[in-house]
Request: fold
Amino acid sequence: MRCRCGKKAVFHSKVYRVTLCDECYPKFYLEIVKRSIKRYNILKKSEKILTCVSGGKDSCAMAYALKELNYDIELFHIDLGIGEYSRESFRSVEELSEVLDLNLNVLKLKDYGFTIEDVERRKVCSACGIAKRYLMNLFARENGFDVIATAHTSEDIVNFFIKNMLSGNIEYISKLRPRIESFDRFVAKAKPLFERTEKENATLVLTLNLPFTQIECPHAPQDVWKEIIYDVELKRRGFKQNFVRAIVKLAENLKLDWKVKHCKICGEISNTDICSFCKLRSTYGVLSNQS
Ligand code: Q46
Ligand code: ZN
Reply:
């Protein structure tokens, strides 16, 4: 297959009806990210954006796109203390910050009294999510960032939606909007890649030879729903993107119902008297006054 410019193609999409080479694809990718950001008011040029990078392909693609689109960004990475996976992830984000010439901020979970390896097996991913959400919000607020950008893809959003619908967790769906505004001690959150697919992100980073790790977290669960989503996409091209737009419409029509309570230990927003992060610290680590 050939690109419209005549070169050998690296990307073909029936959804966009394009076939593109390694030079035309990055321009196309930036154009579609720019379009999403504008249409859904996801980010502003005047904002200081904390861009969360895990070391994987999706956040690598996000950092590249936001930098190329001239947003004011710095990178942010959390060392979760998951052996070789965390060491390799850190090497990738360090290299990415050099290649893109961006400031890299790093927090180590162990400085808060525990690591993910200390958590009992069946609670690992839930604890990891709690720690990441808590630390990115704390770091962003204390360092004057206006918004936190995370690299959730259309597969992630559809996956979250299905799982939460099935468990009757309807309120959660209101959080699946591409941007949630700040309030109280909560810093605004943005998902500039919510319409992108993992394949689009992978093609970008491979085409540009950007550094990312292919090592999977050893705790990553086998995700049956993601496999089902891929199967449906094979039968119905454009399913993920159409579905994610419908989810966003629904999310924007639901009321975001925040209960503003504060943790009695650290003062951060919490649904209960003691926030989930402080509970983790008291269960698996030493609860000190550093946060
Ligand atoms: S949640 Fe679970 Fe991931 Fe954390 S423990 Fe690994 S798989 S890294 S996105
Ligand atoms: Zn707390």
